[in-house]
Amino acid sequence: MRARSAATLESVGLDSSWHGIAVRDVPHGVEQLTQLAASIVSEPSVLVLDEPTSSLDADEVATLFRALRRLRAQGVAILFVSHFLEQVYAISDRITVLRDGYGQGEYATRELDRAVLISKMIGKDLTE
Predict the structure, then answer these.
(1) Would the pTM of this model clear 0.70, i.e. be above it?
(2) Residue 101 three-state SS
(3) What is the DSSP letter of 125?
(4) Which has more pLDDT, 12 or 59?
């Protein structure tokens, strides 16, 4: 069990120095990565992350994104909910825009201009 948990923690970017430390005693970014590790132990086919980077610093976001890219390469579908548009563009293949609970469209990330994305999000043409 220890070997499996160590391997899982390492898969999300946590080196062996964090193994065996109580979650209450680690920085928030490490806690977030530990929660990600706990969620992937069961080898999910879909992973839903709601604002996972909201309280992470840049290094922690980079570590999280490396882990998410590895999971994506293993075939895990990841639903990444965020208001940080730079991060959305950095990590996603497709973007689905919701406004007031209704779908406003689904787009290939590389084909979606940021101004169009923002227009879809706010419901107004940015030139107005």
Answers:
(1) yes
(2) coil
(3) -
(4) 59
| Alpha helix ranges (H) inside the chain | 2-11, 28-40, 58-73, 85-91, 114-122
Tell me the C-alpha to C-alpha distance, in Å, between residue 52 and each of 60, 66, 99.
11, 14, 20
Per-residue burial over 59-76, b = 16 or more CB atoms within 10 Å of its CB, e = otherwise? ebbebbbebbeebeeeee
Residues 21-49 as b/e (b if ≥16 CB within 10 A, e otherwise) read eeeeeeeebbebbbebbeebeeeeeebeb
Average pLDDT over residues 91-113: 94
The residue count for the chain = 128
| Residue 128: predicted pLDDT | 63
Q: What are the backbone angles phi and psi of residue 4, rounded to the nearest 5°?
A: -65, -45
Q: What is the pLDDT of residue 47?
A: 93
